[in-house]
Amino acid sequence: MTLNSSGPISLGGSTAGQSINLELGKSATATVSLNDTDVRTLAGVASGAIIVPTNFYGKSSVVVAFTSTGVEDVAVEPDSALAGYQINSNGRVYAVQGTSLISSEIEQWVTPTSAASQYEVYPTVTSGTLTFGFINAWLVLNTSYTWYVEQVSSGVKTASMSFQVRKTGTATILDTWTVDLIATRSA
């Protein structure tokens, strides 16, 4: 959720967009004060006076951030080269390499990770050709998605991709980033 950008804001209550408790993932009636650490963090005021409602307008307790990256795999015949990128429903991003699909974590893309299923991504290929992966559609991150290039003969296969992320059901783009996939197989 995100708190409203105008109008009423309250510490408690059951109205999404108005309740600080709900934004922080607490129950509507949980005990809360303006001096609580999580409330100060949400307001962006480390110390001193907090002004209600203005310090809370448009604030969200969820942080979504992706980093542009590249994944490369190099293989020698008879193995194929495979370079992939996975956005996982566990709130993390992985590089996928080799036909044994070895994955290594690149980053955590959402905090808290439990909010992952509330977001969707839109992947597009800007150059090259993917071997596998859904593109040109909004994909809800309640499941994991993988995109990869695979080179099965001597040579190089590449794909450059662009991604956007938004909260499901909204039109506001929260982040954009690029991913370059390179698979090289030599004799």
Q: Could you provide a short overview of the structure?
A:
This protein has 187 residues and is mainly beta.
Can you walk through the features of this model?
This protein is mainly β and 187 residues long. It has 2 helices and 11 strands. A 5-stranded mixed sheet has the order 2-11-10-7-8, with no helix packed on it. A 4-stranded antiparallel sheet has the order 5-4-3-9, with no helix packed on it. Strand 10 and strand 11 (173-186) form a beta hairpin.
How are the strands of the biggest sheet laid out side by side?
Answer: 2-11-10-7-8
- The separation of the N and C termini measures 52 Å
What general form does the structure show?
Answer: elongated
Strand content: 35-45%
Compute the average pLDDT.
Answer: 94
Order of helices and strands: HHEEEEEEEEEEE
Number of β-strand runs = 11
